[in-house]
Specification:
By secondary structure, this protein is mainly alpha-helical. The protein has a domain of about 110 residues: AhpD-like. It contains nine helices and no strands. The longest helix is centred in the C-terminal third of the chain and has 24 residues.
Amino acid sequence: MSGLGVRLSVVTEHQARGETAQIYAIIRARFGIGFVPEVFQLLGSRPQYLQVLWDAYQSVFEGGVLAREVKELIAAFAATEAGCQYCAGAHSLLAQMTGASPQIVAATRARSVADMPVDDKLRALMHFVSKIDEAAYQITDDDTERLRDRNWTDAELLEAIWTACIFNAVVRLVDTFGLSAVGQFSSGTPGEE
């Protein structure tokens, strides 16, 4: 295990040079929180992977037809279902920071769809997300038709599916590395690997 509590060495912000430093600067500026979230630092030793992850993140959260808070809820719930404490906590915090309603912020902390304080339309979408998380191969035409019957458009469904799939990949990356908490790298010494 590295000195930062993850299984592989990473390039921290203090260590970043060249292309990695440039991408980190873009990420830091975009988040406006004074640091690069650890999930991105996991891939700092391979700038091409880091760029792909950053592009995927932006593809989810920059624009689109689904409200940002719905996408944060999907990301947090995919993490919760996978048992990824880092991602669940990060997206609950991001939902709050980006102005999500109190109901959505509470929903990001729910352990199940049944516990989410959301309306029936959003609850149906979250049941669908849960099916993506647990058994996407079992999704049928009836599943998408039921969502259309609740007035979810194909464009909204595509974004929901994309968000769930991206965050299923991210939680596996985070869990494989052993990243467990927001701020985990802040205890590391500059230059430590």
